[in-house]
Write a structure and sequence with these properties.
By secondary structure, the chain is of the alpha/beta class. It starts with 10 loop residues before the first helix and ends with a helix.
């Protein structure tokens, strides 16, 4: 499958043919523009295509969810983004949204209803966890056999929305050995990039948060640090570079699944 080109369905094309996909996949700004997270987007699309999931993307019609604007205090910009996006999504009759970005997930789920956007919203870790439970997704590859994996909780998936089990259960569906960091789930340390912090200088302190969090992950002896958020991936990857430990991999949940399926 990896050797052939995947034609990603566009919502506009399907709509013109009178077809309605089950899921709208929201790629997000990082998934579209960040070189590292583009690879996560590709993995997500590969797995969805392999599993014959009915989905489409907005393509050039997709804009920012407005999450960063609101966190940074630009409420007017957020509301403009939200109303524009809701008009597009409702115009296509979108009922279900699937995204790899916990920030977009949180915004669509908890904030868009105020603007007429009522959707069933899935973070990709939740979606793949559901498929594993249903017996649709089987990760039979031994690519992670005898490897130690740990998981860093995204704040907007965990503390903001109470989802801790889905990403862990996905990882545990591989033959890897899973080890928790000392601070995890509701006590997990933030990567340091949420709430608009990604786009501003670090505040004064003894150590930057991402370095401390990376040290905790490395302390587990993990060969793979699993993440499920574009911001977390940037910070953990930078932390590995800072600690000169780039032999340790930082993989998103979607990449772990793709590699486990050997796509």
């Amino acid at each position: 499958m990896s050797k052939r080109k995947i034609e990603v369905p566009l919502m506009s094309d399907l709509h013109a043919r009178g077809e309605q996909p089950e899921y709208l996949v929201w790629i997000g700004s990082a998934g579209a523009y960040d070189d590292r997270y583009k690879k996560v987007s590709r993995s997500l699309i590969k797995v969805l295509t392999y599993l014959n999931i009915s989905y489409a993307v907005l393509g050039v019609e997709e804009s920012s969810s407005g999450d960063v604007a609101r966190r940074a205090g630009n409420e007017m910009l957020f509301q403009m983004q939200a109303m524009t996006n809701v008009e597009i999504l409702n115009g296509y009759g979108v009922k279900k949204i699937l995204t790899a970005d916990p920030h977009a997930y949180n915004t669509f789920k908890n904030e868009y209803p105020d603007f007429g956007g009522h959707y069933e919203v899935w973070h990709h870790s939740q979606f793949f966890h559901k498929l594993i439970r249903e017996g649709t997704l089987h990760m039979n590859s031994d690519v992670f056999k005898d490897k130690i994996l740990t998981f860093h909780d995204p704040c907007y998936l965990g503390r903001a929305n109470g989802e801790y089990d889905a990403p862990r259960d996905v990882i545990k569906a591989t033959p890897a050995e899973f080890k928790e960091m000392p601070r995890h789930k509701s006590f997990a340390l933030c990567c340091g990039a949420g709430g608009g912090q990604m786009f501003k200088e670090a505040e004064a302190g003894d150590r930057e948060v991402f370095i401390e969090r990376t040290e905790e992950a490395l302390g587990t002896g993990a060969e793979v640090i699993a993440t499920a958020c574009p911001y977390c991936m940037v910070m953990i990857t930078d932390g590995l570079k800072y600690k000169d430990r780039e032999e340790v991999k930082n993989l998103d949940i979607a990449e772990i699944i793709e590699q486990s399926l050997e796509l």
